[in-house]
Amino acid sequence: MPTKGTCKAKDCEREVIAKGYCRKHYRLWKAGEMPHPRYKICTFEKCRKARGEKGSLCEEHWNAAHAKAAEAAAPAAAPAEAAAAT
Ligand SMILES: [Zn+2]
Ligand SMILES: [Zn+2]
């Protein structure tokens, strides 16, 4: 049975020094390069804000993604509706 265990980073077998990480990965963790175990962060590239309630993005990026989707959907739906009406 290991005393402290090994680093929890994927494919890393080094000895844990802090936060469940080895020296190398603990440094990355402190630099914000490792996922925080306590809360999930936005999956948007370079964004490390906490996720919103709605999914894998922070509120800002979720709103941006959905505003874009609504914009893209609106012009496409209008002509189809007009064609069906006539
Ligand atoms: Zn490690
Ligand atoms: Zn974000």
Helix content: 40-55%
Instruction: List all distinct small molecules, including ions and cofactors, that are bound in this structure.
Output: zinc ion
Mean pLDDT: 79
Distance, first to last CA: 76 Å
Strand-pairing-aware structural class = mainly alpha
Radius of gyration based on Cα positions: 22 Å
* Integer count of domains: 2
* Total DSSP helices: 2
Strand content: under 5%
Extract low-pLDDT stretches. Answer: none
Give the number of DSSP strands: 0
* Cα shape: rod-shaped
The SSE order reads HH
The largest sheet, given as strand count, sense and whether it forms a barrel, is:
none
Please give a handful of descriptors for the protein shown.
2 helices, rod-shaped, 86 residues, single chain, binds zinc ion, mainly alpha, 2 domains
How does this model look, in words?
This protein folds into two domains: 1-38, no CATH class; 39-80, no CATH class. It contains two helices and no strands. The longest helix has 27 residues, at 59-85. By secondary structure, the protein is an all-alpha fold. The chain is rod-shaped and about 75 Å long. The chain has helices at residues 23-30, 59-85.
